[in-house]
Known about the structure:
- By secondary structure, the protein is mainly alpha-helical.
- The chain is built from 10 helices and 5 strands; from the N terminus they run E-E-H-E-H-H-H-H-H-H-H-H-E-E-H.
- The protein has helices at 46-49, 57-61, 77-85, 93-117, 122-150, 154-157, 161-185, 191-221, 233-254, 268-292; strands at residues 21-26, 29-38, 52-56, 257-259, 264-265.
- It has a 3-stranded antiparallel β-sheet with strand order 1-2-3. The protein has a two-stranded antiparallel sheet with strand order 4-5.
- Helix 3 packs across helix 10 (268-292), helix 7 runs antiparallel to helix 8 (191-221) and helix 8 (191-221) packs antiparallel against helix 9.
- The radius of gyration is 21 Å and the shape is globular.
- The model is unreliable at 1-17 and 42-50 (pLDDT under 50).
Amino acid sequence: MDDAPPLGALNLKREHPPNLQSHYSSPWGTTAWRQDVPVSDRPHDLEAHSRWGLWTSRRLRKGHGPLDQGKYRALAPKHMVQALLRGKDVHRLEVRTAVAFIIGPLLFVIGSVLLMSKLGSGAALLAIGSVFFTAGGWFQLEQALLVTRGLLNRKQRWGWCGIWCALTQSIGTVLFNMETFSSWGLPALNGTPWLMLEVAPNILGSVLFVISAIFGLLEVGHGRLFVIQPHHLGWWVAVMNALGCLWFMQAAIAAIPVDLSIAAVLNPQVAIRATLLGALAFTAVGVLSLAECSEDEVKS
């Protein structure tokens, strides 16, 4: 699949999208489509001419071309490293998405360490990091919206798990913006305002992140939540993303109020440690996503 055409070559904004036929579907949505034209344009190569391109959901929204065999591009660990080290075009949406999901979590890591050590302004770094999370979430949603506008018809759009994965995570990042900026700008907040500006957005954002993680796992598993695909970069991204989401949820649970009048929470230390672990997992997501940008450029 080294010669897979980039998605941009399909002119996503054209009025008449190609007729993609559903290939893998489940009650949770479609996860792959067959292209309506053969992968090979060599008319005398009958075997190649009879194969059809397979657009998996993740490759479709990441801007990659169709597969001519298998459910994903299988890469050995050394090839994953090679993909990571290849030069990247920052004008590509998937590259900018990956970079945002590296910077944001790294700021969360540093901020969490500072909060645990009670040194410096960790809350400020969490707030700034949440902006990069939101930027990454928006870029990811923009990728998905480009697909719905250019490649999927109206009936297919909302039956696609990829759009739900991107949408729920994007909304979740906005809620984390609210929580982190309130915590930074209003450190003495308590009572109902604290509940509405920090506690509720944190819990709801974490729930949306977990929902997004579920859709991400179903996307790479083609309707199955638990699969093992160690040679699939997209699978590693989905798994690490799920771990990050679960740790963020643990942090939200540990931050459940026990006394509104003094903004006391269940276990503040566990909340900070879980945030740190989640941020480390999301940093790995960003790095793996950056490698995924070049997965078709390395020979396996």
